[in-house]
Specification:
The chain is mainly α and 232 residues long. Helices cover 65% and strands 7% of the residues. The strands form 2 sheets. Strands 3-5-4 form a 3-stranded antiparallel sheet.
Length: 232
């Protein structure tokens, strides 16, 4: 509580002699702070957002992008996993390597799979005969590539729909006005389903193209080593 007050996140309590009295307004503020922290906001950004709120801005509008993103990707229940179950799925792999690859999260002594579907797909590759270390390396590199692509897409939305096509010149301009937040939220709601479907289709088409190329190359090797003899 004192730490939040020092950072400007929480107003001081009412004093009654030597007692500090907190009321429902403090509880409401703490709930907002907790929600924003869970979403990954820093305390500095939270202080700026709350300051805008106190100056009369609608916090729901100030957080229009966050609200839109929350609606598009609701929290997924994480699946608890024991270290024994994880090592059974990925023989020879250290659990820390699974965490580093992004397939597993570790928090307060508990391991969870953020996406059971992705974990199962990786385990299927291992069962098919691909070494665990190769699968984990692929998962790590895929996550890095997709992370960069997602950032580029969102940067484009923010730059052109929130910032008007130019970089933010002053920190005071970083928070979108009401119309900009609404435009960005609308764009995210309408574009995200098409983008995710399109990316999945692009990956499938790319896998098909490379599969054909690999098979053609192998066929070429076989024909090169065993040239056919024309019949007479």
């Amino acid at each position: 509580m004192r730490s939040y007050q020092e950072r400007g996140l929480l107003h001081p309590p009412r004093r009654d002699g030597r007692r500090a009295l907190y009321d429902d307004t403090h509880l409401g503020r703490l709930r907002i702070i907790g929600r924003l922290l869970d979403r990954g906001y820093t305390t500095v950004t939270i202080a700026e957002l709350l300051a805008e709120w106190e100056r009369g801005r609608d916090l729901g509008v100030v957080l229009g992008l966050e609200t839109a993103v929350s609606a598009l990707w609701p929290p997924r229940p994480a699946t608890p996993m024991t270290p024994e179950a994880l090592t059974a799925l990925f023989p020879g792999a250290d659990v820390d390597a699974l965490v580093a690859a992004g397939l597993v999260h570790h928090h307060r002594g508990t391991h969870t799979a953020p996406s059971q579907q992705i974990l199962a797909a990786a385990a299927d590759l291992v069962r098919a005969g691909v070494p665990s270390e190769v699968v984990l390396d692929l998962a790590r590199r895929t996550t890095t590539a997709l992370d960069g692509m997602a950032r580029d897409l969102l940067d484009a939305v923010v730059t052109h729909l929130v910032d008007g096509g130019s970089a933010v010149a002053h920190p005071d301009d970083a928070l979108p006005d009401d119309s900009a937040a609404d435009r960005a939220a609308t764009a995210l709601r309408s574009l995200t389903p098409a983008l995710t479907t399109g990316i999945a289709e692009l990956l499938a088409a790319t896998l098909e193209r490379h599969s054909v190329a690999v098979l053609d190359a192998r066929a070429g090797l076989v024909l090169g080593e065993h040239p056919s003899t024309p019949s007479v």
